[in-house]
Amino acid sequence: MKMHYWIGTFVFALALVGAGVAGYAQQAPAPQAGRAGRVPTAPPAIIWPSPPLPDGPIVSDTGIQHQIRLIVTKGFIQPWSMAFLPDGGILVTERPGRLRIVRNGILDPNPVAGVPPVQAQGLTGLMDLALHPRFSENKLIYFTYHKPANPTSGNNAGVITLARGRWDGTSLAEVRDLFSAIPSANASRIVFGKDGMVYMTVGVGDLPAAARAQDPNDLAGKVLRLRDDGTVPPDNPFVGRPGYRPEIYTMGHRNALGLAVQPDTGAIWECEDGPNGGDEINVLLPGKNYGWPIVSFGRFYLGPRVTEKPWQEGMEQPLVFWVPAIAISGMTFYTGDKFPNWKNNVFVGGMRQGEVPRSGHLERIDFNDKWEELHRESMLRELQQRIRDVRQGPDGFLYVLTAENDGALMRIEPFSVPAQSRGK
Fold first, then answer.
1. All structural domains of the chain with their residue ranges
2. pLDDT, tens only, 362-409
3. What is residue 38's predicted lDDT score, i.e. its pLDDT?
4. Contact, 364 vs 377, CB < 8 A?
């Protein structure tokens, strides 16, 4: 679920700066407070839990690859991210604060030791996971999590923090924080670029907090670029510029829930949630502004457009966008040989489409040789599961995580119909 804010556009206009934003703030009247005196942020939630997954294997049909088979590993609680160990093990984070390991398709019942205390409430908790590019030498595992806030700070949100630990084969050792960003109720993804740097997202919500995405002295609504020890690279775009945080690589994002490295160019691709519309895939360029909330294709949860301006000079356009939103989360490029018809396609997870429950799915997007979008395909919709993450494994298969209290890891592999069953 995405964070919902609605305090009124007049308050938001005061918080934003610039003529473009002031014009934006007049698009919709402020909603009226209800009987309890509180301004609603969204329509009442539709409580319609996802059905349990079959134990598997599950066979499904797709439009271009045709039949696939899903091997299901159950027993997770809100799994969030995964990383593949060289020995074949798969590490999986659970948002409540546990790190789990799957070996040969079997989930170890005991959580991996060494994870620090995590503040998990609402949408916060243990987030993303990535192996250091030289993991075979240094055994370092990086992760983001919400570090419990100082009780005297008066802030209930945990602090989005980048940390690392050394994998000893069964647990994390020598765990230490590398960089703490801000108290936030939003998510954080990380990825190592081909330059060896850590790219880290820090989300922001809607009104009135959205203004922070345009504040260069605030880390909210930004993608950060850090060395592997958490320090700032000297070639970051805003290093030495007064009024700008030097960690910032790009700005003007909402809630970024996917990062991936483009295989050919090494460019960092990012996907982020809009509110009720306006989910995006962006190709990140250093120092650029991606527009939230000044430009957007989205609507707020109560219906009004975020803005009448989907484009403005000096702000980058998304490569792909969704209206209505699919609650995008997780992203990977497919470069393997197990699915030849999916070569160089991009896969993203969707947790619900148009705010409708049980509409989660995996989405495939293919492009021409200029990386211009050609087709989209919704897959696994019949499972009615919220898809939190998707990754290509070193074995060439695709792996997805379901964002459910009864969550699962699913391996997607090709499936051939037995000859004797064809034509029946």
1. 9-42+56-417
2. 999 999 999 999 999 999 999 999 999 999 999 999 999 999 999 999
3. 52
4. yes
**Domain 9-42+56-417, what fold?**
Neuraminidase (2.120.10)
**For the chain, percent of residues with pLDDT exceeding 70:** 88
